[in-house]
Amino acid sequence: MSESNGADRSAQPGLARLGLRDFRNYAELQLKLDGRHVVLFGPNGAGKTNILEAVSFLAPGRGLRGADSGEAARHGAVNGWAVSADVVRQGVRQRLFMGLEAGENGRSRKLVRLDGHSASHADFADLVRVIWLTPAMDRVFGGSAGDRRRFFDRLVLAQFPAHGAAASIYERSMRERNAVLEPDRRDEGWLDALEGRMAQAGAAMAEFRYRAAVRLQAAIDLRAEGEFPKADVHLIGEWEDLVARGGPREGTEEDIRQALRFSRARDAAAGRTLRGVHRTDWKVTHRPTGAPAEECSTGQQKALLIGLILANARSLFEGDFGPDPLLLIDEGAAHLDSHRRAALYDELAALGGQAWLTGTDRNLFDAFGTRAQRFHVSEAVVREV
Q1: Average pLDDT of 5-19?
Q2: Which class is 144-297 in CATH?
Q3: 124-133, pLDDT tens digit by residue?
Q4: In terms of DSSP H, where are the helices of 223-248?
Q5: Residue environment code for 128-162, b if the CB has 16+ CB neighbours within 10 A, otherwise e
Q6: Start and end residues for every CATH 3.40.50.300 domain found in the chain
Q7: Are the CB atoms for 328 and 132 separated by under 8 Å?
């Protein structure tokens, strides 16, 4: 077991326990955590990322793999799956539980509990915020606008959990609108109702995005110069621009409603909705060189991503509007040189909270010293070392 510095960690924020049952490749797992950062190391395919995914399921949405809840069950398991965690905030320990329970006729139902009582996923937002960085995100700058938007929306969601509910309403209503626009199904009254839902949810999303971008940029500007370069972030969206000009949410909502109404014929011809917050883009500039992130080297892009994740976490700490975040960094250290690895661990230690990191080799995390709790993962067996 790693040497402790002797401080009492029982009241430190973060997860104090994580339990899995029939989740991915784990039949049963119980991790007892002491408040330090968490390092999971071992060979590829051993189940390290599965543990991070389980933690990410505590946040709204589909988790860091974007998987449907039905996909998380262990192969051969017939009774669904479960993830439970003890979270400590302001010295109070509470138990979070979520899972999928198999039912009759092949149907399953999702279970969410807080301290043993039925709850909703939204109830977890006051106890845990989760931010993650995965290898798949390394391509975000050179990917599509949709890729960039989804990445940014994850950052927004950590700051404003209600953004997730608004996005779900917007996407669902937009799909229904697209269907109702078809000539044989057109219903003007139903279109009015759907566009009203889209406008209300879209105005909220635009406001959340704008406020999150402002906070993120402020946190970036306050970070000291170091191994992870500063960035300038730019939201590119007509409704976010409207929010930036100081208009009230009601005004943004009405503008979206009118835009949707006037574009019905064009959208029907295209077979999709051509205007809306689902078209917003997000651009990042590498401040030291002034180059767009998509033109930077692979190493510069990786450093930019880590800098953005750290800045977003910092904005949560300084915002005084929610719990300290959990940072999940999957295979993030493997592509950093020793100086940047040490700098990352120093920043995480200074930040506070709890970070979870994975890697194949234990020596990747030597610079953490006693600031991290280490676990070796091999074929779904996890052992503290």
Answers
A1: 66
A2: mainly alpha
A3: 888 888 999 9
A4: 238-244
A5: bbbbbbbeebbebbeeeeebbbbbbbbbbbbbbbe
A6: 1-128+323-385
A7: yes
Which tokens is 22 given? 């029939």
Residue 213 Cα to chain centre, angstroms: 15
Neighbours of 253 (CB within 10 A): 22
Q: Are 373 and 40 in contact (CB under 8 A)?
A: no
Q: What is the pTM of this model?
A: 0.89
Instruction: Quickly state the pLDDT bin for 7 (edges 50, 70, 90).
Output: very low
**Helices 162-180 and 145-159: angle between axes, nearest 10 degrees:** 140
CATH number for the domain running over 1-128+323-385:
3.40.50.300
Strands 231-236 and 281-286: antiparallel
Segment 264-293 shows an average pLDDT of 96
Kindly report which listed range (2-6, 89-93, 108-112, 367-371) carries the lowest average pLDDT score.
2-6
Q: What are phi and psi of 265, to 5 degrees?
A: -65, -45
- What is the rounded distance in angstroms from the CA atom of residue 32 to the CA atom of residue 134? 24
Tokens of 288: 């030291």
Stretch(es) of the chain classified as CATH 1.20.1050.90: 144-297
